[in-house]
Amino acid sequence: MPNRGLPVVVIGSGAAGLFTALQAAPVLPVLVLTRAGAAEANTAWAQGGIAAALGHGDSPRSHLEDTVAAGAGLVDEAAARVLCDEGPARIRELAALGTPFDLSGGTFALGREAAHSANRIVHAGGDRTGARLEQALLAAARAAGVTIQDMSEVTGIIVEHGRARGVRIHTVAGAERAIEARAVVIATGGAGQLYSHTTNPAVARGEGLALAFDAGAELADLEFYQFHPTALRFPGVRPFLISEAVRGEGAVLRNAAGERFMPRYHPLADLAPRDIVARSIVSEMQRDGADHVVLDCTEVAARMDIVARFPSIASFCGELGIDIRTTPIPVAPAAHYFMGGVRTDTWGRTTVAGLYAAGEAACTGVHGANRLASNSLLETVVFGGRTAAHIASGAHQPAESDAHAIAVDCARFAPPSHAALQDLMWHAAGMERDAGRMRDGLATLRSWRTTEEGSPSARVAALMLEAALAREESRGAHFRSDFPELDDAHWHRRQVFRRAD
Ligand code: SIN
Predict the structure, then answer these.
(1) Which end of the chain is more exposed for a tag (fewer CB within 10 A), N or C?
(2) Catalytic residue selected from 112, 274, 343, 371
């Protein structure tokens, strides 16, 4: 019999963590641990919205087809079907618990993003979807009795007899302690901070993946990192996301000569899949010797109140003297979303009993090699909800191990600085990779001293480089200039890693 007094410990306070907590709270005590402030999550920075088949004439099947097409042959279709089928009900649930989604004519106002065949992006506060969602979930979780403990960094998962039994934490006051748990959920979000240019906040360092790996769980799809095509590029300013929804409303990319270049690269032009837009931008920048292209919203502004539709973009740019109604926005690609993560089944189970993962830190396989826009917030609630349901059921079986998982050793590298790691990853495992740069990157990483703690981010980076070096083809977000073709004969498969011992 489980000890009913032990809490479910959720690591991370973004949408995945909070939704999991909220769903489990009616039946179990829940403790959410977060290393910074409770609202300092990747979720709060999301702009475009959440994808779900809610529009007239749209269907989960069409959403599934778009998701599978974007994933370049590696989407786990069973998991993606769960995502697309359960999505609409979860959006209604979010609305019911207080997320103030934008409405039009009494129903959800639906925007468009790249590679979607229908308008299916639900948004809130125009481009403040993530912030509004985070606020609503935090309020609902607190009202449901979830305990949220901030400034608490988890330094390890306690595993006994093959089962996760709790976590070790380090508080900002310097205290170390262990917390026993009935189940542990890794909902630590992404890893954009492994790169020197990213749309992610400071907390997105990929550390949850290292926690899971150290605990013996499997990691999958580590070679697939998505770069967002349009992050603001302005001297001395962080790469603020310029949502794809702006292009969805009709904004167009132009090069240094003012030419609208995307029609030369893809029939869907500015709304081509993200990896194609990002690489096209890089090729224009390289040809022109520029560090950015521009996003021209002037025609959109002539048709609609663009400031009301994208208030945070308008205000961020406005503070830099860029009036988006009249002045094109300088943009360049930046690291945005990690398709890879802790391998789970569709109930959030990892291969370690009692250890779960949800949201961007997890890898259910729904994104394959390239995530469809706005499927990320959706996965947080669909799989967060299922994770909570599985924990509440009291079942303890872990997910099945991958028969082909590769056992790897990963030393505890300590980079000279986090910036050195970011620089290494940007050059070695960025949008365009080749064996030479990746081998050099790995060699540098391995030359760094190792310590008892090491840097969890550096461990994840080393695994990402190993995965990307092994995959000798180009697929989705993984583009190898030395292997530019897709190679289904050898690589129509996922790579899964686990700890050697
Ligand atoms: C965006 O608003 O462009 C980001 C949406 C996403 O990454 O899904």
Answers:
(1) N
(2) 274
Ligand 1 pocket mutation pick from 43, 230, 244, 371 by most atoms within 8 angstroms of CB:
244
Query: Do 114 and 277 meet the contact criterion of CB atoms below 8 Å apart?
Result: yes
CA 86 – CA 366 distance, rounded (Å) = 13
For residue 47, the ligand 1 atom closest to its alpha carbon is: 2
Q: What's the pLDDT tens digit per position in 109-162?
A: 999 988 899 999 999 999 999 999 999 999 999 999 999 999 899 999 999 999
7 and 29 Cβ atoms separated by less than 8 Å: yes
Closest C-alpha among 374, 399, 383, 370 to residue 223: 370
Sign of CA dihedral 186, 187, 189, 190: positive
Q: How far is the CA of 245 from the centre of ligand 1 (A)?
A: 7
CA of 403 to the centre of ligand 1 (A): 34
CA distances from 353 to 3, 15, 158, 392 (A): 16, 23, 12, 14
What is the chain's length? 501
Q: What pTM did the predictor assign? A: 0.96
How far apart (Å, rounded) are the C-alpha atoms in residues 368 and 477?
10
For residue 346, how many other CB atoms are within 10 A of its CB?
22
- Phi, psi (deg, nearest 5) at residue 488: -65, -30
Closest CA to 294 of 265, 317, 319: 317
The residue whose CA has the least distance to atom 8 of ligand 1 is 374
Active site residue 247: no
- Buried b / exposed e along 156-193 (16+ C-beta atoms within 10 A): bbbbeeeebbbbebbeeeeeeeebebbbbbbbbbbbbb
> How much is the pLDDT for 175?
84
Question: How would DSSP label each residue in 257-325?
Answer: TS-B-HHHH-TTGGGS-HHHHHHHHHHHHHHHT-S-EEEE-HHHHHHS-HHHHSHHHHHHHHHTT--TT
Pair 353, 162: CB distance under 8 Å: yes
Residue ranges and CATH numbers for the domains of the chain are 8-190+339-393 (3.50.50.60), 230-333 (3.90.700.10), 404-499 (1.20.58.100)
> Quick one: which of 263, 304, 274, 350 has its CA closest to 109?
304
Mutate to test the pocket of ligand 1, among 246, 374, 381 (most ligand atoms within 8 A of CB): 374
Calculate how far, in angstroms, residue 228's C-alpha sits from the geometric centre of ligand 1.
8
Residues 396-408 have a mean pLDDT of 95
Please tell me what DSSP assigns to residue 180. E
For residues 175 and 292, the model is more confident at 292
Q: What is the pLDDT of residue 4?
A: 55
The backbone torsions φ and ψ at residue 82, rounded to the nearest 5 degrees and listed phi first, read -55, -45
Nearest to 383 by CA among 337, 349, 351: 349
Cβ-contact 377, 119 below 8 angstroms: no
- From residue 78, alpha-carbon distances to 68, 158, 382 in Å are 11, 31, 14
